Amino acid sequence: MAKIQPGNSATKKEAIIQKAATLFKVKSYTAASMRELAEMLGVEASSLYNHIGSKSELLQAICCKVVKEFAVNLNLIECNSTSNISKIEAIIRFHIRIMLYNFDEVYVANHEWKHLKEPYLSDFLNFRRSYEKKLIVLIESGMANNELKIINPYVATLTILSAVRGLEFWHGHKKNVSQEVLENDMINHLLTGLLR
User: Fold this and answer.
1) Does CATH place domain 55-192 in 1.10.357.10?
2) What is the chain's Cα-based Rg?
3) CB 27: neighbour CB atoms within 10 A?
4) What per-residue confidence (pLDDT) applies to 114?
5) Residue ranges per domain, the chain?
6) What is the pTM (predicted TM-score) of this model?
């Protein structure tokens, strides 16, 4: 019987979570089965349960991992960046990079969160609301300091988050645009609309 190979992951559980994210992205959380996940990993379905309790636990792990990455990054930016503009740029760059390099997990968190069970569903939604509020406050602070033009902070936040989420289309079509050009041009376009 084959064993689960961690690959680039630190643990077998992390390898399972990464494969689950890929499966949930392709098939959706509801349509995917543990048997299909076991086939992707090249193991018996029963051996998965030595590392993970259920399909819902996998979804929780994926969404919690994404939330943690966003929370840690925002905290680092708030502590280390000086101006509001540099903070906003760092946040946009992080959003772009996580969409480029951790796409499967972010895609699942963006689309399949509604299948989370309580209390994970409430925790996830509370984090999203809190994260958006912090971005709004950051933009308000930039306007108060005359770094940014006077705009509706909610609309600006929505525009940034929607634009970066639009990278799902880039993943789907892989146009002849390098990741570096993609990141720098998106930063240019998004920041230009905010600067005074």
Assistant:
1) yes
2) 19
3) 12
4) 98
5) 12-48, 55-192
6) 0.89
